[in-house]
Amino acid sequence: MNNHSKNEIKTSQIIAKLVSNTPGRLRLRVGNRHRTQEEMQRLANALQSHPDIKQVRTNLTQGSITVQHDGEDSLENVYTALGDLGIIFGDIGEGKSEVADGVASTVINLNKRVKESTDGIIDLRFLFPLGLGCLSIRKLMLQGLQLDIIPWYVLAWYSFDSFLKLHANSMAPKSEQ
């Protein structure tokens, strides 16, 4: 025997981040896992049928749902409706951690400094493969063809491969305009 009422909808938890909460307007960003056309439309339709909600807009690219509601008196009802749909508020993650952003920012700044100090002749995309290449030559000269530990040819390959990957855009054929 089923103890659930007919109106109860079984939903999975959808993690969302509250982006903006101004009087009469609430905007949230849905986690990547639920950013599908079907899921976003399902949420929008369910919210639109709520009596305290005037309008619901979705942006699939950003994963955001904007809810226009009747004001402060209806805000608690909107939160309840979101909860009934399985939406819980938390950190959805944006793909990069703060540490990754910090490291990337540091490397970008260092690259700018190197480029500025050499008047644009040399940058880290050149220096990094060059450094690996020099390290491979040094290792070859000091240790010979030693194949039991990282051999010189692996470092030489990394030098060559990183040079190609770091210069992929600049080596692509230019299209005529």
Structure, explained:
With 177 residues, the chain is α+β, with helices and mostly antiparallel strands. It folds into two domains: 14-89, 2-Layer Sandwich (Alpha-Beta Plaits); 102-167. 47% of the residues lie in helices and 18% in strands. The chain contains six helices and five strands; from the N terminus they run ββαββαβαααα. It has helices spanning 37-48, 72-84, 98-117, 124-143, 152-166, 168-171, and strands at 14-22, 25-30, 53-59, 64-69, 87-89. The chain has a five-stranded mixed sheet with strand order 3-4-2-1-5, covered by helices on one side. A hairpin with a 4-residue loop joins β3 and β4. The longest helix is centred in the middle third of the chain and has 20 residues, at 98-117. It is elongated. The model is unreliable at 1-10 (pLDDT under 50).
Annotated CATH architecture of the largest domain: 2-Layer Sandwich
What does the largest sheet look like?
5 strands, mixed
Q: How far is the first residue's CA from the last residue's CA?
A: 72 Å
Number of domains: 2
Strand % is 15-25%
Instruction: Tell me the overall shape.
Output: elongated
Name the structural class.
alpha+beta
Structure in a nutshell:
With 177 residues, the chain is of the alpha+beta class. Helices cover 47% and strands 18% of the residues.
Question: Could you give the topology of this structure?
Answer:
Elements lengths: L13 E9 L2 E6 L6 H12 L4 E7 L4 E6 L2 H13 L2 E3 L8 H20 L6 H20 L8 H15 L1 H4 L6
Parallel strand pairs: 1-5
Antiparallel strand pairs: 1-2, 2-4, 3-4
Helix pairs in contact: 4-5
